[in-house]
Amino acid sequence: MLGLPRARSPWIAVGVLAGALVLAAVPAPLPSARAQGAYLTGQLLIATDDLKDPRFIRTVIFMIRHDAKGAMGLVLNRPLADAPLATLLEQAGMDPKGAAGSVRLHVGGPVEPTRIFVLHSPEYAASDTFRVGSEVAVTFHPDILQAMAAGRGPKRSVFTLGHAGWAPDQLETEIKGGYWFIAAAEAGIIFDDAYATKWDRAMSRRRISL
What we know:
Largest sheet: 12 strands, mixed
Helix content: 10-25%
Order of helices and strands: EEEEEHEEEEHEHEHHE
CATH superfamily: VC0467-like
Number of domains: 1
Shape: elongated
């Protein structure tokens, strides 16, 4: 599990589904991937058929951090439920008036499963948004909910609960053990709702070695 610094604003309790959800803390700036490509920030991690852990069977994970301190990613193909945007706003202590539509929540991974992480297209940016590659950004601050309600949010987004995390060198060991493939990220795989084909599409883009 990777440690995240405390957020500059209070946690947001969201009583959706079975438990309380909180928006994730703002992490330290992400390091760039190493020039030789050994670090996988901004790429896809694809579970091979040898990975039998039920939490990760045939998952596709977008890597938002990978460095000497470990790795962190968000599962893309485990949709969970839709939550009304007005409900999220209200339970975050914001004015829900006029907010329409819903947000689809996804299982992002087994670590911190009540925290919300938002992957989105990069035209939206707030003070706590950081870019991961050219087509994806990540926001941890609740203001993104207000922006969406006002029609100023990102065009595409993925709300995940929890994340996948690895200790230093753990992911590298798992890759060498044949449990993961790597592929270049593609916006359609990240953002579309064709969940049944995400794994196959990601596998078609795979490369085998670090």
